[in-house]
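Late entry, written up from scratch paper. The run itself happened at the end of the previous shift, but nothing got recorded in the book at the time, so transcribing now.
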Amino acid sequence: SAASDVYKRQDDDCWIGTNVVICGNVHIGKHTVIGANAFVNKDIPSYCVAVGNPAKVVKKYNFETGAWEKV
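Output as recorded:
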C-alpha cells in the first residue's frame, strides 16, 4: 500500500521540539535540533538547527572553528 512506502528517519541525538510535524520520506540528520511547532517537509542535514513553517536551517555547526554559525 501507499502508506507502507512512507518513512521517516531520524539519526542519533536529535532534539525534536513540541508540536513538530514531520512529513513522510524525510531524513533528519544526527545532532539536529528541530524547534517547537516546526513543519518538516524536507531533509534536514546533520549538526543543524531548523525552525519554522516550513522548517528551514538557521544554524550549522562548523567543525573547523568549533562554533555554531548562522546560515
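DSSP finds no helices and nine strands in the chain.
(Scratch paper discarded after transcription.)
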